[in-house]
Design goal:
Layout (H helix, E strand, L loop, with lengths): L21 H15 L6 H8 L3 H5 L5 H24 L7 H18 L1 H7 L7 H26 L9 H13 L1 H4 L8 H16 L5
Helix pairs in contact: 1-2, 1-4, 1-6, 4-5, 4-6, 4-7, 5-7, 5-8, 5-10, 7-8
Length: about 210
Amino acid sequence: MTTTGSAEPAPRRRRGRPGYDQAAILRAAVELFNRKGYDATSVGDVAKELGLTKPAIYHHVTSKEDLLGQALDDALDELTTVVTEASRERTGETAYERLREVVRRSVEVLVAHQPTVTLLLRVRGNSEVELAALERRRRLDDRLAALVAEAVAEGALRDDVPPPLVSRLLFGMVNSLVEWYRPDGAYEPATVAGAITTIVFDGLAEHER
């Protein structure tokens, strides 16, 4: 029992097992969701992976679906910021330049958040959390398609490919990185981002036909 006025403060209550905070639990859950599948993974599996008890996991999260929601938000939040910034008109910057920038930065986001982006690309709308994530993805596609349309109107991009299709193809190329890119591999993120941006926009640039 702590005595009032004691010179020695009472020790703080530890949040779960030492060394495992909410971020560590989320990382373990995402790794298991990707390896075993979300439906096949239980909170007990996450606890076992970390050497914790289930109550220790529930000290940090309310449910397995809560873990899924946090993971999908991690994948979507920075990408949403990138697309939102690119969608704003800026003095002295064309839509074409902002579109190139959003592709480059999207690669950087994927590399930095590859496990959660991988999980995002596997969701199929089987729960409210998944449906909400898919709706966020749809809105990002719409905003990117609008930016493509602006670049077409400027005359910077060819006009014979529908902007919504261009948007899907752009994100499709970026998202394909989850299948093969490894942070410890041969290519730095900046190299990959530059290569994708160059390939995409050389193919989309307006030429005499």
